[in-house]
Amino acid sequence: MSVSAAPGPSAAATAPSRIRILLADDHALVRRGVRLILDREPDLEVVAEAGDGAEAIDMARAHEADLAVLDIAMPRLTGLQAARELAALKPGLRILMLTMHDNEQYLFQALKSGACGYVLKSVADRDLVAACRAAMRDEPFLYPGAVTALIRNYLDRVRHGEENADHILTPREEEVLKLVAEGHSSKEIAEILFISIKTVQRHRANLLHKLGLRDRLDLTRYAIRAGLIEP
């Protein structure tokens, strides 16, 4: 009679751990579609969802995630702002930007914000899974043509002396700038950021002085160029 071998380790013990993903997009329908793409993969799992950048930061604090997939254009905090905060809050967290914008400025800002990849929503079903896996291997992922766009954008910025402009503003000034550009009054901004109206007015004056601008319209144009709001 043959003797069966001793049972080996269980499948659960030997199976590779899944990549835990935080997904942030302000459109529930988009989140549902992206989640379907990710959750059908055996090595990927969405563990938290957020409807804006600020909620994404809260979710990152509350859940253990390996990778954040962020939309760029979101209320309260954009994906770009959230990426910067997440990079500081969770240095080991990989970040991918998922966006409808095939836009050189957004691409450049995303990479400077700490993202390791930039995926277009129009081809998410083709590229997103590969981008997630690349991110976890510490490899950058850019859609075809993005490298050329990145280099051209960088050279244009250097040529026009704009390369250091991103380091002028404090995080709070950037928040105020975004809200001003979105059309909020000083009173509304004060309520959103839990600061006084006088503080908002001081930030606005500092913004105009630092950036050499004249009025709200100029601030709005700058916010669009900086990727804080959609064109």
Describe this structure in words.
Keywords: DNA-binding, Phosphoprotein, Transcription, Transcription regulation. Pfam families: GerE, Response_reg. InterPro entries: CheY-like_superfamily (IPR011006), NreC/VraR/RcsB-like_REC (IPR058245), Sig_transdc_resp-reg_C-effctor (IPR016032), Sig_transdc_resp-reg_receiver (IPR001789), Tscrpt_reg_LuxR_C (IPR000792), WalR-like (IPR039420). The modification 4-aspartylphosphate is found at residue 71. With 231 residues, this protein is of the alpha/beta class. The protein is 51% helix and 13% strand. The protein has helices at 11-14, 28-39, 53-62, 79-89, 104-112, 124-136, 146-159, 171-181, 186-193, 197-211, 216-225; strands spanning 19-24, 44-50, 67-71, 94-99, 117-120, 141-142. A 6-stranded parallel sheet has the order 2-1-3-4-5-6, sandwiched between helices. The protein is globular, with a radius of gyration of 21 Å. The termini are far apart.
